Amino acid sequence: MATVENVVIIGSGPAGHTAAIYAARAVLNPVMYEGFMAGGVAAGGQLTTTTEVENFPGFPSGIEGPALMQLMREQSIKSGARIVTETVESVDLSEAPYEVRLASGNIRTKTIIIATGATAKRLDVTGTDRLWQRGISACAVCDGALPVFRDKPLFVVGGGDTAAEEATYLSRFGSSVTMLVRRDVMQASKAMQQRVADNQKVIVRWSSTLEEVRGDPLLSEVVVRDVASGDTETLPAGGLFFAIGHQPNTEFLDGQLEMDDTGYLRTSGASTATSKPGVFACGDVQDKVYRQAVTAAGTGCMAALEAERFLS
Ligand code: FAD
Ligand code: NDP
Predict the structure, then answer these.
(1) Is 301 noted as a catalytic residue in this protein?
(2) Burial of 198 (0-12, 13-18, 19+ CB in 10 A)
(3) Confidence band (pLDDT; 50, 70, 90) for 290?
(4) Pocket of ligand 2, candidates 54, 122, 162: which has the most ligand atoms within 8 Å of its Cβ, to mutate?
(5) Whose CA is nearest to atom 27 of ligand 1?
(6) pLDDT (0 to 100) of residue 262
(7) Does any ligand 2 atom lie closer than 6 A to the CB of residue 161?
(8) Which one of the ligands is nearest to 288 CA?
(9) 1: pLDDT strictly greater than 80
(10) CB-CB neighbours of 150 under 10 Å
(11) SS3 197
């Protein structure tokens, strides 16, 4: 009979790696499927798309996101977790042991820890499909340093921490960076807002939405609407970056677990238990409130401890 795994961890951000470290140290011999550009994000998760992480405990001088994730991966392996670079295609949760479906062959497992995180959303206005990756991106840190954006007027859509951080980062490269914020307030933390205000190259356009993008073959103009007056203005643009939030990576579950109306997994009370026994969810895939590396790691720890308790 084929082996039945104790714990399969799906996803490789801070939640997945913390779960892997705890499950491995509990001698559960966990296997992690870290994904291969799953949801367009590299193994290691969202922090691989950022520069300095200044709020993860233990790094008083800050640490680059990719370096932090590499350290977590090393710690998972050192603790005894097995890591497979493959994306889980689907799961069958109709009966235990559960089936995890992969291109390399299906496996069975007594428990699953879902740590698949979330993916950046894109804005769908006229021209964005045609000019996607031709001056338009959803990851300033990945693409901002490209020569095509040097000394050009750049735009960031959004008013959250990601938008503030990306605008600050892009100011190193562009001639100016304009943030298009759809309301007259920003969702970003006070510290990030201050950073934007202190940066002379960053301009905030309040109550402004993106109407259209133009250019051939590359982006050259954006049309911006003032929400209050309804007026539109066409502005020269060398780059446009979406920073408008994220979509939880739950499609591969095909509705087999309870989710809220935006696709985030529902967990029960202060636990990481989902609607199926032995299936736990941690990190951004179940958290639309805090969405931080340290909270993802915290819930990854909880998921592993709960899986251990379930198995015993
Ligand atoms: P993620 O980091 O989203 O990782 C999930 C992983 O699972 C991804 O690699 C994905 O490819 C993989 N995956 C998805 N589907 C599958 C599948 N079917 N099979 C296998 N693998 C799959 N937080 C902070 O605390 N401090 C910061 O400074 C900070 N900066 C940020 C900067 C940016 C630009 C962004 C976007 C976020 C930032 N955050 C920051 C938030 C932080 O990155 C997230 O809260 C955290 O990464 C969530 O971790 P996670 O483990 O839930 O999932
Ligand atoms: P958020 O959900 O926090 O913010 C999304 C922003 O995009 C909001 O300003 C929202 O506007 C705007 N928006 C959404 N949809 C549209 C649209 N269709 N058109 C125009 N604007 C739109 O997402 P973030 O990615 O910024 O942050 C996610 C999490 O990651 C947060 O918890 C954040 O704290 C964390 N993070 C932390 C960092 C740090 O600590 N250094 C850095 C980056 C992220 P509105 O407010 O009107 O809804």
Answers:
(1) no
(2) exposed
(3) confident
(4) 162
(5) 53
(6) 83
(7) yes
(8) 2
(9) no
(10) 15
(11) helix
Written as six digits, the tokens of 296 are: 């993802």
18 near 75, Cβ under 8 Å?
A: no
Nearest CA to ligand 1 atom 39: 292
- 190-198 helix and 161-170 helix, angle to the nearest 10 degrees: 20
Residue 88 in tokens: 């889980």
Provide the residue ranges of all domains of the chain, joining segments of one domain with +. 4-119+246-311, 122-242
Mean pLDDT, residues 246-261 taken together? 94
d(CA 146, CA 155): 15
The pLDDT tens digits of the residues spanning 152-184 come to 999 999 999 989 999 999 999 999 999 999 999
Q: What is the CATH number of domain 122-242?
A: 3.50.50.60
- Catalytic residue, from 139, 282, 284, 287: name it: 139
Options 3.60.9.10, 3.80.10.10, 3.90.78.10, 3.50.50.60; CATH for 4-119+246-311 is: 3.50.50.60
Contact between 235 and 251 under an 8 Å Cβ cutoff? The reply is no
Chain centroid, CA 43 distance in Å: 11
User: What pTM value is reported for the model?
Assistant: 0.82
